Amino acid sequence: MKKLMLLPVMLLAAGVFAQKKDNTPKTYDLIIGGYTTGTNKGISVFRFYTETGRTAYLTQVEGIDNPSYLCISKNNKFVYSVNEVGNDRKGSVTAFSFEPKVGTIAVINKQPTTGAGPCYISVDKAQKHVFVANYAGGSLSVLPVAKDGSLMPVVQTIQDEGHGPNKDRQEKPHVHTAVLSPDEKYLLYTDLGTDKLNFYRYKPGADQPLVAADPSSLSVVGGHGPRHIDFTPDKKYMYLITEMGGVIYVYDYDGPKSKQLEAISLVADGFKGAVGAADIHVSPDGKFLYATNRGDANEIVVFSINPDNGRLTFVERKSSMGKTPRNFVIDPTGGYLLVANQNSDDIYVYRINKQTGKLTLTNSKINFGNPSCLKFTAAE
Fold first, then answer.
1. pLDDT for res 89
2. What's the maximum distance between 2 C-alpha atoms anywhere in the chain?
3. Which residues contact 310 (CB under 8 A, 6 or more apart)?
4. Rounded to whole angstroms, what are the CA distances from 203 to 33, 212, 235, 255?
5. Which of 7, 115, 277, 340 has its CA 20 to 30 A from that of 324?
6. Could you give all domains of the chain from N- to C-terminal order, each with its CATH number?
């Protein structure tokens, strides 16, 4: 009798498990930003189907100057974009309302960044502040976020000083990225011009929320030019890609006290062309790392990650099928990688082998003018 009583309970548990599994999103919104110097007129939204890797156009918002980098609020209701214009102090950022179920996007407001050439933007999980890297101005800007998603004026600006050994590219500071640590205790930003990764403590309730950490920075080899960073899902390891050096620095992550474990080159042995390393991402399962190299290589480089020490092992290099693979994104299920080729006006979709990390080109492609940023958010 007791055995018979267990059967409904087991079936109920199995049903609950199946229900949870079925709730995993199968469709996502792919939001695309880029430069508006060619055929692109703003930001576009596509639907992405994880079971097939296919995409479908949904909508576009026009009249946005060079929305070259985007971020999405944690609640999926707002999108924020830089307006990367000018070498003077004309840079700005724009806030948008977003409806993920239908993919509609609309402008809320716009604010100046007080810095030139903003190229990167991020937002904290609580939606208190956005952080903007002003590349041409060599500064970092902090703007509060209102409850309605709109942006308020800049409350803090951090101006970097110094230069690097490359007189053509490092004549002054060039802040390139602004990323919160996984626990959001720190704001990390790279400075391509001074070869530093900088750390500031983040205090969201303060009038000026960023305070320099101690130590305040990590340095790379002179002339390498730090660009983007990413972390493993378990938060143990951090990876920093350098644009001019074409090198990935691997760190045992501990905030500003992080220890370098190794530095590994993206560049193939014997390669003599121009190097322009760009983007870097860890797969959702933490097993693989992907990076793009522009210049004359135009390729995606794949590494496996040693789970015991975070070190990298080369797997393969794959053509991006276009020119200048500036940015790429891995879908949240880890099944596909999409790469944006800025100077050939196209986005290609690759299937990821989850056992080997290797990429296989699919038949899915998006034609888009000067794409430079791809972001996913759940559509369900």
1. 64
2. 84
3. 232, 236, 237, 250, 251, 252, 261
4. 30, 11, 20, 15
5. 115
6. 221-319 (2.120.10.30)
240 burial class (0-12, 13-18, 19+ CB within 10 angstroms)?
Answer: buried
Alpha helices for the chain (secondary structure H): 2-22
Distance, CA of 167 to CA of 366 (rounded, Å) = 38
CA proximity to 134, closest of 70, 178, 188: 178
CB atoms within 10 A of CB 82: 30
**Phi, psi torsion values for 344, nearest 5 degrees:** -125, 5
- 2: region left, alpha or beta (phi > 0 left; psi from -120 to 50 alpha): alpha
CA distance 36 to 249: 33
Task: For residue 323, give the nearest of 273, 283, 287, 280 by alpha carbon.
Answer: 273
Those residues of the chain that have pLDDT short of 50 are 1-20
- Which tokens hold the place of 189? 């930003």
CB 173, CB 162: distance < 8 Å: yes
pTM: 0.93
pLDDT at 96: 98
Predicted pLDDT at 22? 54
pLDDT at 14: 46
Question: According to the model, what pLDDT value does residue 25 have?
Answer: 81
Burial 10-38 (b: 16+ CB within 10 A, else e): eeeeeeeeeeeeeeeeeebbbbbbbbbee
pLDDT at site 260: 98
Helix (H, G, I), strand (E, B) or coil at 52: coil
Q: Which two tokens stand for residue 5?
A: 């009583």
- Predicted pLDDT of residue 21: 55
